[in-house]
Design a protein that fits this description.
This protein is of the alpha+beta class and 186 residues long. Helix content is 40%, strand content 15%.
């Protein structure tokens, strides 16, 4: 049966008709053309399809599209498209060898983002736990864990700079200098 839903997708309001049996993964890839989210196992075991729903990482292959009504969805496309440059987590995967074939990478990055948005200082065990549902057949995981930890350090540093600048409006950070110069801020 078809039903109308509306939700926020990567900051944009979306209204569309869905079938009751569609998964969120189907809606994203097949109906909305957001193919950055990958389909691996299709049954909740690999994490390739991970997206963020209301700040929680979920397997979109197991999440009914009907259940996103009124919710906020972030996919991998939200990270670089709006800023024009790589998100710190993406850049860290590049810099630390966290990507080989890349198939698991969007899911890994969205799991990492759900964690680091809340806890950029997460320790190794917490990172491992957050990524436990994401399988990689290439890297051996060490570089992935290093990538997430390094991204967390950078995000924590960025938050610290922002807080300091907010306390002291006269402080000119590198970020505010870039902003004044009209450059893209990550
Ligand atoms: S495709 Fe969803 S968990 Fe594997
Ligand atoms: S980089 Fe190939 S599956 Fe992870």
């Amino acid at each position: 049966m078809t039903k109308p839903i509306s939700f926020i997708l990567n900051g944009d309001e979306i209204s569309c008709d869905i079938q009751d049996h569609w998964t969120l993964l189907h809606l994203l890839r097949e109906e909305l053309g957001l193919i950055g989210t990958k389909e691996g196992c299709g049954n909740g075991e690999c994490g390739a399809c991970t997206v963020i729903v209301d700040q929680l990482a979920v397997n979109s292959c197991l999440y009914l599209a009907a259940d996103v009504q009124g919710k906020q969805i972030q996919t991998i496309e939200s990270l670089a498209v709006h800023t024009g440059s790589l998100h710190p987590i993406q850049q860290s995967f590049v810099d630390n060898g966290g990507i080989q074939c890349g198939f698991c990478t969007p899911g890994m990055i969205m799991s990492a983002k759900a964690l680091l948005d809340k806890d950029p200082g997460a320790d190794q065990e917490t990172i491992k736990h957050a990524l436990a549902g994401n399988i990689c057949r290439c890297t051996g995981y060490v570089q992935i864990l290093d990538s997430v930890a390094a991204a967390g350090r950078q995000m924590a540093g960025n938050q610290g700079e922002g807080a300091a600048a907010a306390k002291d409006p006269g402080t000119i950070t590198q970020q505010s200098m870039n902003k004044k110069a009209g450059e893209v801020i990550t």
